[in-house]
Input
Amino acid sequence: MARHQVCEENDIPVGEKKPFVVDEEEILVYHLEDGFFATQSRCTHLFWPLKNGKLVDKCTVRCPFHHARFDVRTGEVVQWANFPPGVQLLNFVRGEKSLKTYPVTLEAGKVLVEV
Output
């Protein structure tokens, strides 16, 4: 694994996220009140882009398609896909799966992600 500078600290306001491609991997970098975090860029349910998702509860990203929610600090599932009604039938085929996360460090105002 190598560390890559993806942006400057001020490039992503607190409470926002930004997509990047690092070593051919699509990732999202989030700037939360307690620091920077990075995850894979696609939902593990049906691989919808999370860059279009919404940050809720200060540390959770919600997929815009079926509303699966993930803690961006750990990648863990907070709530599996639940929208629209009936999507739960599909969930038997697509079981819960956490997001892949990447270590992030901040050095001299630069955001570095280990991929």
User: Anything to note?
Assistant: The chain has no helices and eleven strands. The chain has a mean pLDDT of 92. The chain has one domain: 3-114. The longest strand covers residues 25-32.
